[in-house]
Specification:
With 482 residues, this protein is mostly helical. The chain has a domain of 162 residues. α8 runs parallel beside α19. It starts with a helix and ends in a 16-residue tail after the last helix. It is built from 21 helices and no strands.
Length: 482
């Protein structure tokens, strides 16, 4: 526990040098931040602290698995204490590896000025660049739902123009999401016949989750907390509450539309006839869209969030299979004088279409009687539906892995090969995070800082994975007994 806390504190210290500040922030005028952010030696030191801190948290998480493998009831207080200790320093870091929180502030300012964030990017604001949001969001409309738009508007209104104060409501919302996960992930796991303590460790204490949900201030935290709570209520035969909570998550980020047909299946039950299924699917959609319509009427933006669903689809990343294949083939087509951009667009569209067909098949093919509870089988299908949408997208963010981890955790991840995949993915996305967005002033060589992050991150992660006697057996089965 204390090793993970030490790692979190190191990440807090590292954020002072390479965490994200708004360009208009008053903090940069204080001596501490001037030294931490403008001196090359201090920036390199902050980068090293960040890498060492995250790796320490990863190692602590793995050691908890070694120490608590009995997973009896006495382990729950230990896990909750670890969660509190590891989260507390992250609550006061500067935003790490992401500038999305400053995009949230910009979108809140759009709302306060009466501009439609579904048709206007942040560039519609005067002096928008003083926030320092990612350029992706300067022209693009928001992909968020009405509930999060209200949170953005309220945060800006309460802060009276201070970006540091505006971050506080977003951090509290992220914390609320993690709290919801800490409550309902174990409940769902127990309902489906799995250890709630092990689910808490695997699905909530994962360092990639804590970094992305708390450290990076992503609204996915509240989205996931609400959808998991909704799935729990739908699983215990309280479908209307389930629909309301899933709709609240949809009003944060509309990607959770995927969950609605599976909530309808939970409502219908295993032996439901097709008329009952279609009737309850219709009722589920009517309740959910009725709530969203009411929200759209109140904020005057209607169903604008539907058109904004495609906003993040304009980018890709090298480790996304569809994104990589589409752009490699598009580049090759360009070399031979062909329509490279067209090829890339077609392949990405095929991936998107395939994911939609998979989601439909998972919802429509009847769930056969089996040895698992019906609710578990339905939620497992929902998990594979989310997995299809993530894997077949051109862009896979590290926190998308966290979505899938949470859902798979509630429906069972076995020891052995399945758990080892989680360990490797956690290590991989740890390294991706450490070498991603760092805030470095233009006169400090970004290449040098990134090289330091890569070298320190890879060496430390490699040690934990393959040489540390306490943890290497979790990655290399032949060394399990070492």
């Amino acid at each position: 526990m204390w090793q993970g806390f030490a790692g979190s504190v190191l990440m807090l210290l590292g954020s002072l040098g390479v965490g994200w500040l708004a360009g208009s922030s008053q903090l940069i005028r204080t001596p501490l931040f001037i030294v931490a952010r403008t001196t090359p030696a201090a920036v390199i030191t902050a980068t090293v602290f960040l890498c060492l801190g995250f790796i320490l948290m990863l190692r602590a998480w793995l050691l908890l698995y070694r120490a608590l493998r009995g997973w009896d009831a006495t382990t729950r207080p230990v896990l909750l204490k670890a969660l509190a200790l590891w989260t507390a320093p992250l609550m006061v870091t500067l935003p790490l590896f992401s500038r999305d929180s400053y995009a949230y502030i910009g979108q809140g300012r759009l709302m306060l000025q009466g501009l439609d964030p579904y048709t206007n990017g942040i560039s519609a604001l005067n002096n928008y660049y003083s926030l320092g949001p990612d350029t992706l969001w300067t022209e693009a409309p928001t992909p968020y739902g009405p509930l999060f738009l209200w949170l953005e508007q309220g945060a800006v209104w309460l802060s009276h123009g201070s970006p540091e104060l505006a971050l506080i409501p977003f951090r509290l919302a992220s914390l609320a999401g993690v709290v919801l996960l800490a409550v309902y992930v174990p409940k769902l796991a127990a309902l489906y016949g799995f250890s709630p303590q092990r689910a808490l460790w695997l699905g909530v204490l994962n360092p990639v989750l804590l970094l992305n949900f708390i450290g990076s201030v992503h609204n996915d935290s509240l989205m996931m907390g609400l959808v998991v709570a909704g799935i729990y209520f739908a699983s215990v035969k309280r479908p209307v509450w389930g629909i309301v909570l899933v709709t609240a998550s949809l009003a944060i980020k509309p990607i959770t539309l995927i969950a609605l047909p599976f909530v309808g299946l939970l409502w219908a039950g295993r032996d439901a006839t097709w008329p009952r299924k279609f009737g309850l699917w219709a009722a589920t959609l009517a309740i959910s869209m009725g709530i969203m319509l009411a929200a759209g009427v109140v904020n005057g933006l209607g169903f604008g969030w539907l058109a904004a669903l495609q906003t993040p689809g304009t980018v890709w990343i090298w480790y996304a299979p569809v994104g990589l294949a589409a752009h490699v083939l598009g580049f090759a087509t360009d070399l031979f004088g062909g329509p490279g951009a067209g090829v890339t667009g077609v392949l990405q569209t095929i991936g998107q279409g395939a994911s939609i067909l998979i989601v439909m098949a998972l919802a429509l093919v009847p769930v056969k009687p089996g040895r698992h509870p019906y609710a578990r089988d339905v939620v497992r299908r929902m998990t594979w539906a989310f997995a299809a949408v993530v894997v077949l997208a051109p862009m896979i963010q590290p926190w998308y892995m966290v979505w899938l981890l949470v859902f798979f955790t509630t429906t069972g991840v076995r020891d052995g090969g399945q758990l080892r995949v989680v360990f490797y993915l956690t290590a991989f996305f740890t390294l991706i995070a450490l070498t991603d967005q760092l805030s470095v002033f233009p006169w400090i060589p970004m290449v040098a800082v990134r090289v330091v992050a890569i070298v320190v991150g890879v060496l430390c992660a490699g040690y934990v994975m393959f040489f540390d006697k306490a943890t290497r057996g979790l990655f290399v089965p032949s060394r399990e007994s070492a």
